[in-house]
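Sample entry (261 residues):
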Amino acid sequence: MSATAILSALAEEQQGLIERLTHPVRVERAGREFWRGELQGRPVVLGLSRLGKVAAATTATALIEAFGVSRVVFTGVAGGMGHGVHVGDVVVASEFVQHDMDASPLFPRYQIPLYGRSLFPCDVTLTAMLLEASKAGVAQGRSRFNQDFGGLGMAVHTGLIASGDRFVSATAESRDLHSALKAGGFVPLAVEMEGAAVAQVCFDYGVPFAAVRTISDRADDDAHLDFARFVSDVASRYALEIIQALMPMLPQPHSARQTAL
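Predicted structure, serialized as tokens:
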């Protein structure tokens, strides 16, 4: 059985995982650094998506083509958009939409040209595991995080996430974006910059994909406040707790397949 790819948007989220790798091997591909090894007896490949849809798609393609991964799991941060989604909450994606895709009038707004679809679903089985792992991870760190960041919501949601190549950081922009998506029949819980691209690549290759995002802000005028500290003190811990909870749920490999590099 081949490896599970664990993608993160930011280096802080991967550091704890790299430190826990057994038999770590550093590999360069497509101008990127990957770490191959084992977590809790499961073969994994760790990589950074970088920011934006094109960079994330390149990273996902490299993971599939060069390493032959059997599934992709994404951890990262996002801006909350849905009702009841608060800073410190976690959103496990059920599907993704690209909020900046507009090839109208040739195609309906938000539809990916020549695919006949606007939504790219996450794998049902892998997402169910990630949802369970997210609940366990949040429960594990609840008291500690509340001491560090008072007032964090720490609820776990599942639903639609919107991706686009811009950092949404103004209240008016967030409101307009949410209204436009809702008018098109889409009601996202969160907004970020990479997930939809990775979902599309995994759809093309037939590779199961699941994603979890920690809400760092409400995609409004306060979106830049304490972002670096939040990623370091909260999101990176969530990522570590969630992935550690997920690993035992994954199928135990019968034999490790060597990948040509």
